[in-house]
Amino acid sequence: MYLRQPRAAVDHAASKVNIPDPWPYRLSRALGWLGNGSVFFFSLFVPKALVLYWLTSTVHQLCTHLLIMHPAVRRSLNIWLRPNE
Hints:
Keywords: Membrane, Transmembrane, Transmembrane helix. The chain is mostly helical. It contains three helices and no strands. The protein has a domain of 54 residues. It is elongated.
């Protein structure tokens, strides 16, 4: 199923019928623009140090997760192994 149904090839010069987009498509586009606008507006007032904190926190969390998921690290720290290890 398509969110936006493909339209048949019609000669638009001869046909004066204007088919509007379905409401779910229009709603999803409007919410997308609302989300983009709110993030842009919020980013104007957020201190740059907060963005740097979010970035470093996320990178640290990702590295810790990847390290803990490594089988050699799990064995050395006596963390139970996953079934496929």
